[in-house]
Amino acid sequence: MAGLYFSTTTLSTAVLIPALLLLFFLLKHHNNTNNKNPNPKPPSPSGLPFIGHLHLLNPPIHRSLAHLSDLHGPILLLRFGSRSVLVVSSSSAAEECFTVNDIAFANRPRFLFGKYLGHCYATIAWAPYGPHWRNLRRISTLEVLSTHRLLSSSLLRSDEARSLVKALLRDYAGPGFQRTHLKLMFFGLAYNVIMRMIANKRYFDEDSDEGSWKAAKEFWEIIKDVGSVAGPSNTADFVPLARWLDFGAYEKRLKSLKKRRDEFVQGLIEKYRARKETGSPDGQCSPAERTMVIDLLLSMQEDDPENYSDDFIQGFIAQMLTAGIDTSSVTMEWAMSLLLNNPETLKKLRAEVDANIEQGSLMEEGDLHKLPYLQALITETLRLYPSVPLLLPHESSQDCTVGGFHVPSGTVLIVNAWKIHRDPEIWEEPDKFKPERFLSSEGKERLRTMAFGLGRRGCPGEGLAMRMVALVVGILVQCFEWKRVEEEEEEGVDLKHQGVGLTVGKATPLEVMYKPREDMAGLLFQL
């Protein structure tokens, strides 16, 4: 049972039983007082005293919730300990939550993760809806991730994609197909892209010094650890006794991760300050440095130090790193896995790339508009395997109605995007990998994924992620032949999800066989 570790031996029976009875009667009274609304409550399976439905959650959680929705309906009310949780698994209900009820669900629950790794609920992901969050959103969408800013940094991403191709060529011993792991390569590329946007610094590079390699690998471990403790089913967030006793040392782990991550990000800030002071005689930044996120934030700090403290800058950068790296690299891995299991789709994609990229040229981000099948393929990957299958949780700030059901204030909302993306009432052959479904004008208008969320709290990094993932997948197909490793040749690449975490990747890291394409040899060996 994910996140649930009960051990009552540390409490005497005389203390434990009265405390649990008190909690039970308080919950019963709360439920009775909320039954006066004329609209019915959503259906709910039978739960257990004190823990509610937590015992029904087995990893991966999105599959457990999908199973419960199959049994009880697409709008489901669960109880996680002391909290009511609305689980939505239909597209129409999700849209109702983020259109008609967008303001009502604009808040986040105050989970421990948001307290420690969301800088005390001050980052764009975890801040309560209000002026501070609106300012964060403004900075993200108009300053950091605007269309203009993304266009101006496109050569940076093309350069990193080229570096990935060079790394694969450097490791290739030939002749014939050679085995390699792609997971760390994808992480390194995404890490370099985000770090160059933030601080104009590459870490994963054959020319990097030992300190940079060590720092990059350390942050990789931090990202993996952060991902493993995120998610909407940690017992300490729902059962007060579990938090008091700190079962599983969850809160201590969050504190440790916060310390490690904050030290890393503060180090970036201090290094940049030092470089800015010593980099030029007048202390001014170069044109390239003035486009960096860290320079933008420090300039804002100079103008308004009270509102843009180091803690604010830390939180903004940490959010950008953790949100932008893991989700993109996970999607790259899913896309390549699906291509290996669907060789005809791989052939179609290669034909599109070859027909639209000039002979003797390496694909760049500016070519993506000429490659609709590639873009449809990435969208289809996100439909089948959204990197965050359960969207970040919301919380109702007022009573509202969803699907004709009464939802009281203070209810946690979980949207099961993974389940919605496989709804046979919306998607023809929902479990089949079919990029063609997004090619027609009707398909583009009618079929929408919610991999990046919906409403005002949707992910502002969608444009960056789509560009980066499409470019990487496209350039790999352009430059190399790919096939499955021998042990997966018959049954295909294993597409099982890993068990826990907010960002959910493959249970087993992707291994592939590759070799340079013969008709690309002239170009590749000039790199």
**Widest sheet: strand order?**
1-2-7-4
Secondary structure: helix percent: 40-55%
CATH homologous superfamily designation: Cytochrome P450
CATH fold group: Cytochrome p450
Average pLDDT taken over every residue = 88
Count of folded domains: 1
Global geometry = globular
Please describe what this structure looks like.
50% of the residues lie in helices and 7% in strands. It has 527 residues and is α+β, with helices and mostly antiparallel strands. The protein has one domain (8-524): Cytochrome P450 (Cytochrome p450), CATH 1.10.630. The radius of gyration is 24 Å and the shape is globular. The chain starts with 12 loop residues before the first helix and ends with a helix. The model is unreliable at 1-16 (pLDDT under 50). The chain crosses the membrane at residues 6-27.
Key phrases:
Cytochrome p450; alpha+beta; disordered N terminus; 527 residues; four-stranded mixed β-sheet; three-stranded antiparallel β-sheet; 20 helices
